[in-house]
Design brief:
By secondary structure, the chain is an all-alpha fold. The protein has one domain. The protein is 55% helix and 0% strand. The protein contains three helices and no strands. The longest helix is centred in the C-terminal third of the chain and has 45 residues. The chain is elongated, with a radius of gyration of 39 Å.
Length: 128
């Protein structure tokens, strides 16, 4: 009985390893997958409105105040800035223009690249 149990355990543990088996080599194939990259729509164009700027000095202060009172009633409220602050605002606007131009160039570059890739993929698909 011990020999039978020992034989059964040995057969179970060795399983089918006693019979030689041929393993088939695994073939790995890499194939590029073309995806269609959709282009987002450009944003709506800017709808900026131009404010009217008043340049006020000692000579035209009284006429300016009269004009403001006529436009806004009896209440006189206006915003003022120094020449240095105006120059800072002009600098900031120039920086915004520069940044927007650079971002537009980047968007145009990637749009051109992805459109060319999409066209090449469509031509290859049509050829197959």
């Amino acid at each position: 009985m011990k020999f039978l149990s020992l034989g059964l355990i040995a057969t179970t543990l060795s399983s089918c390893s006693l019979w030689p088996q041929r393993t088939q080599p695994v073939e790995v194939v890499t194939k590029p997958v073309r995806i269609n990259i959709t282009q987002p729509a450009y944003p709506r164009t800017l709808d900026l409105r131009e404010p009217y700027w008043y340049v006020v000095n000692d000579e035209n202060l009284e006429t300016f105040l009269e004009d403001v009172r006529k436009q806004s009633g009896d209440q006189t409220v206006f915003f003022a800035m120094t020449v240095a602050d105006y120059e800072l605002m002009a600098y900031n606007m120039q920086e915004l223009r520069r940044y927007i131009r650079e971002v537009q160039e980047v968007v145009l570059y990637y749009r051109t690249i992805t459109e060319n890739l999409n066209q090449q993929g469509q031509e290859e698909d049509a050829g197959n």
